[in-house]
Amino acid sequence: MDTAADSCAPSSSAAGEVMARDEAERLAQLIKALGDPTRIQLLEMIRTSPDHAACVCDLTEPLGLSQPTISHHLKVLTDAGLLARERRGAWAWFSVRDDRAEETARLVAHLLGAR
Amino acid sequence: MDTAADSCAPSSSAAGEVMARDEAERLAQLIKALGDPTRIQLLEMIRTSPDHAACVCDLTEPLGLSQPTISHHLKVLTDAGLLARERRGAWAWFSVRDDRAEETARLVAHLLGAR
DNA sequence: TCGTTGTATCGATGTCGATCGATCGATCGG
DNA sequence: CCGATCGATCGATCGACATCGATACAACGA
Question: Which one of B12, B61, B112 has the shortest CB-CB distance to A105?
Fold first, then answer.
């Protein structure tokens, strides 16, 4: 009865420690913000802008998407902490938060075991 | 009629060049493979294993998920090029492809403007 | 050859998210 | 104040995906 006390690894469990689930979920949510082609294009456009900032109206037409969709993606990136939002009159200017961007790059590099 | 020849930016379009859509989609698909808490935990467990490799049976129980689910996530990471799969007898051993991992970290860092 | 064990695939299900049109709030020019 | 423009939010829709049980496939031992 119940022959298998150990299922497959008799000597040693070869797997390392499990990262805490909530930590993994927080990291996943951050990375998920980068895992959409439209958001990648938005980041690249904002980053390569002359003054490293852009308003929604500058971003809508080149991507061929509706204004609510662009606004949605910018909100996702802002909520993830990767973009800063500043109202200048009627316009909303978005720019990359360099500190958070660099921290995110570090987190991803560590996850991948890269130095 | 139709007063606005220019919509919002009269002098200069402040946005930078648009990244090609297919390039953005390829990059998004790669990043999406990292944007799931279970896959993050799997990567971390494989990376921190004694011999930097693990088989499915070692990974199923610690995460509390079914074997088909773990197998599915490992396939996603393998299809993304981040894991290598090697059959050793009845077991399938997975390990991180360091070259692809480092390349991915570089791509993300560039996307975020980090050095 | 047969049973056992590890792994992959299939089909179904429920949830999440990308997208849009419509609408609302806010700001500026007159 | 009034009209116009920019941007955010709402509600709906549709496809993508994480998860599971069942099952098929593969490799080993007796």
Answer: B112
